[in-house]
Amino acid sequence: MADNIDLRILGLLQRNARISNADIARELEMAPSAILERIRKLEQRGVLLGYESRIDAKSVGLGLTAFVFVSTAEPGGKKLAGLEFAKFPEAQEVHLVAGDDCYLVKLRVRDTEDLARVLSERFGPISSVRGTRSTIVLRTLKESAALPIEASPAETE
Question: The pTM is what?
Answer without folding.
Answer: 0.85
